[in-house]
Design goal:
About 55% of the residues lie in helices and about 15% in strands. It is α/β, with parallel strands linked by helices and about 350 residues long. It folds into three domains: about 5-105, Rossmann fold, CATH 3.40.50.2300; about 135-215; about 225-354, Rossmann fold (3-Layer(aba) Sandwich), CATH 3.40.50.2300. Helix 5 runs antiparallel to helix 6 and helix 5 (about 110-170) runs parallel beside helix 8 (about 260-270).
Amino acid sequence: MRRYKILAVDDDYASRLLLKKVLEHDGYQVTICSDGIEAIEILDKQAFDVVVTDLIMESIGGIELLEKIKQTNPEIAVILLTGHASIETAIQAVRLGASDYLIKPLNLEELRIRLRRTIERMELERRLKEAERQLTYNATIATANHEINQPLTVIISAIEMIRLELDKLGIKNQRIHNYLELLNKSSTRIADILRRLRSISSPRIQEFPLGMKMVDIGTSEPTVSVESKYILVIEDEENIRKIIRSVLESAKFKVILAETAREGVDLYRADQRLVEVVILDFNLPDANGLQVLERLQKINPQVKVVLTSGFNVDESIQEALHQGAIHFIRKPFNPQQLLDIIRKVYFYHTSEKA
């Protein structure tokens, strides 16, 4: 599981030590510093996911630090801490791109919750950007194929027509023949490049000298191994999400969590190639299981969905199973029941596809 990197900035020695102790206890990789100037120097040398900073500091305050971070690396999330709260400051912080704003003295549990939500939101935004990048790539390649293949077809046909005309006229000129052969090979190469670009579903970027970047067209796209696949858990109860994640990760499965139907569908849309199984709570605050199942099946008709519920919704569950859900686990369930079903669904269906 990835350890997120956090930079904690506070000019109070005890406060920054407390932040480091609490956040490291939660599994984060934490670096601390005493002011905004030192924070900027550290950010120039290291990459961080989140900056947690005091608002009022002697050298560079939290607002100025926030501005500098958003100018140089807008992907970093910034959480501001202050003992001098005001509506104007909060509005300014949000307008400048702060992810959250907490009042001192800190409620440590609230800090944990806010930080976890910030990271979950970052991950969702990253996946959505990746999905948008994929859609842009697909649209670009489709346009290129259409617009280039049209004149390319004319060129290839024209090469053959020139050859026929030369034969009719009885012209035997090796130099002209070589030129036509060169044109034909180049046209065929262009057609092959377009075909390979069209077949790439997840483009890999290659770095070249002078900062150039190009898509690696290769010869074929590597398949995703079973070991690199994930289980997506869509569950609105936080404690149940944690339990399911703990049980699955203890059995070496990789897990992605979603709290709502919308978040779960967005994550699946972005990462469907990596998701082997979806564990779906039937009763979510923003949609029921049948609605979510239908949305997932629109993205991938072969999606494998295991339903869970603690409510008496037998008729709806039967309908969902009839519509393509693979299994149903009634709450409460024990860890072994969950693992038995997931192993059966996961390994049986992946071996079927192999």
